[in-house]
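Protocol step 4 of 6.
Sequence for Phosphotransferase (Verticillium longisporum) entered exactly as in the expression construct, tag removed. Do not edit the line below.
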Amino acid sequence: MIKDDKLSLFRDDNSSHNDWRSTTDVDPKSSLRKQWGLDSAIMSVAASDNTPELSTLRQELETVLHVYTPSLEDAQAFKAIAGAVGRRAARLSAVAIAGIVLQSGKLDDPEAEYIDIGVDGSLVEHYPFFRDMIYEALRAVDGIGSKGADKIRIGIAKDGSGVGAALIALVAAGMEKETSDVADFRDSVKRELESIPALADDSLTSNQQVAIGAGIVGAAAVAALYWARRRNYI
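Step 5 output, structure tokens:
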């Protein structure tokens, strides 16, 4: 927007257009001139500053973004744009939360008094009114509405990414162990069966064949018991 000549953001024709009686100047090295250079911290300042002159925001624009002598009109425009970006982020977050809630079916569960959603990140934790904007978006989602949104509780979950990684590692370890147990079970049955003579041997008497058959059944039972114990161990 700074590079668009059709817009007058942070640009004065003369000092009479600036309530500080000075022309606004942006440092050539300002992060405003770089893609992804705007930090959400100053957006938080913009959202929280409701003073008539937006003095706190104007000071931050000069200190952090090196926008010198920004006018009140510039600060108002920055506040409006930052608010729109923050509201969009909250709505995108609400879409993800709504999808999980609707898929879980907990909204229709009479035994579920509340649905607790854990979130992590500096934006949801420190950006003013961010959770309020999430709730506003949730109320507009079909299938949730005001009643469903009141049932959803959003709380801060510290170190969510670390906990999530630990849970994934635990599940992966369990799957690997289960695969190993299946292989052990298969090898155990194979060894038991290989230790029994083939039933096709004509030299065996009927009593011997019966005994062999009982041995196969016993081997299978031992293998099944082994497998059950292994499963319980997991």
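Step 6, annotate. The CA atoms of residues 178 and 234 lie 8 Å apart.
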